[in-house]
């Protein structure tokens, strides 16, 4: 599966801790991330991550391009709901694309944990259903 990690500045430590806790689950999947988040994760784990630009410099949009072409399976995007983001339109566009393509996206650790537990069980039915019932 193709999995992306994105974290706002005040959520980067939380993302690193989360990915470290579930490192064995993420091994064997193709991982993507925005720039700094990916660097921080790779410094603390043995995971290999395909890094894009920083979110404000277009990294969110690069991940969005994979979503738009249905090449992304799961996104963990730890957003900071208490801090205004200068690239908010890019964030909203990414979330909209996930809704259009039926890509699960977690915006907090509680939801991320539910999705990773499903991944851990091998429950990939959400992707099969999206492909089966998606209108052309």
Q: What does it look like?
A:
This protein has 136 residues and is an alpha/beta fold. The protein has a single domain, classed as Rossmann fold (3-Layer(aba) Sandwich). Helix content is 51%, strand content 15%. The chain contains seven helices and five strands. It has helices at residues 12-21, 23-26, 35-44, 59-68, 88-101, 109-121, 125-133; strands spanning 2-7, 30-33, 49-51, 74-78, 105-106. It has a five-stranded parallel sheet, sandwiched between helices. The longest helix is centred in the C-terminal third of the chain and has 14 residues, at 88-101. It is globular, with a radius of gyration of 14 Å. It starts with a strand and ends with a helix.
Explain briefly what this protein structure is.
Keywords: Lyase. The protein contains 7 helices and 5 strands.
Return the average pLDDT rounded to an integer: 90
Low-confidence stretches: none
Number of domains: 1
The name of the CATH superfamily reads Methylglyoxal synthase-like domain
Radius of gyration: 14 Å
The SSE string, one letter per element, is: EHHEHEHEHEHH
Query: Strand pairing plus helix content: what structural class?
Result: alpha/beta
Query: How many individual β-strands?
Result: 5
**Helix content estimate:** 40-55%
Strand order within the widest sheet?
Answer: 3-2-1-4-5
Main sheet makeup: 5 strands, parallel
CATH architecture: 3-Layer(aba) Sandwich
How does the overall form come out from the CA principal axes?
A: globular
What is the CATH class name? Alpha Beta
Oligomer state equals single chain
Through-space gap between termini: 22 Å
Number of contiguous helices: 7
- Find the CATH topology: Rossmann fold
Report the portion of residues in β strands.
5-15%
């Amino acid at each position: 599966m193709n999995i992306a990690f994105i974290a706002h500045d005040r959520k980067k430590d939380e993302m690193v801790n989360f990915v470290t806790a579930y490192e064995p689950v993420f091994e064997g999947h193709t991982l993507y991330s925005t720039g700094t988040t990916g660097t921080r994760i790779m410094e603390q784990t043995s995971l290999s991550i395909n890094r894009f630009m920083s979110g404000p410099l277009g990294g969110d949009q690069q991940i969005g391009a994979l979503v738009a072409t249905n090449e992304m399976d799961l996104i963990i995007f730890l957003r900071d709901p208490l801090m205004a983001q200068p690239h908010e339109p890019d964030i909203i566009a990414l979330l909209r694309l996930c809704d259009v393509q039926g890509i699960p996206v977690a915006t907090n650790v509680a939801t991320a944990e539910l999705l990773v537990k499903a991944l851990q069980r091998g429950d990939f039915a959400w992707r099969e259903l999206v492909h089966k019932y998606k209108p052309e």
